[in-house]
Amino acid sequence: MTLRIRNRIILLLLFTSILFSLVISFLYIYAFIKSAIVPPLSPTRFFTSPNIFLLRYNFCFSLLGAALFMLYSLFFLFWIFVRFEKTQSPEIFYFCLFLCSTLCEAFRLFVPLFALWQTYSDTLLLIGRIILFGKFLAPISLLMSSLFTSENQMQDFEKNYTIVITVGIAFTLLVPLNTSQISTTCAIIWGFSKPFFAIRTLIFITAIISALIKRQTKNYISLSLIIVSYAILASADNLLFFLTGSTLLFISTHRFLADTHKLYY
Description:
By secondary structure, the protein is mainly alpha-helical. 69% of the residues lie in helices and 3% in strands. The longest helix is centred in the N-terminal third of the chain and has 31 residues, at 3-33.
């Protein structure tokens, strides 16, 4: 893949992110005025916490966490387009997939917006599969970003992209979804959650180890922080998780991209 084609793909992703952000912002402003935002009743929480202010479930922080993923994707796609426009960096190709996965997390915003949790619908099922696809794409994209760091591997970019997306779609279609249960982060509960969590964790750890072995730089530290902060923000339904995850995610991503940029200059 040539640099020109890569930049066009990034620009397309950027425009898609901008359009999505504008649409969701308009819908939420309208819904807020009409008092039409409906939080899920009795949502499922994946962890227990002390009943203190910082860790207490708050629907607003669930919305803010999903919205921040949307802004995060938009901001860093623009950052990459500007800073890496003339840089033939394989890592950035795959990191853009990670940014796409965070945009998938923002689809959680549609669940309370249209009160989709109240009844079963094909729309709810579709959104659930988009979110699940993003959760599959996040660890795989970071693993590939740490593995395929040689410019000689650029020629395999299209093939790798196709494989990842095809496997991701197949995976999301095979995993069952329980549309009768909604989590506190406004996500549909999926089946085989414990094995899926274990596999994702293993892939994330492999990505960190690979970055440590292949680069021998501080890049693996920022990659580790991206993974940790992504996991925290994806689970954010309280003030502490939201503040910690959002702050750490933006700082670590900035550090990761800055370190990657130095490798080519």
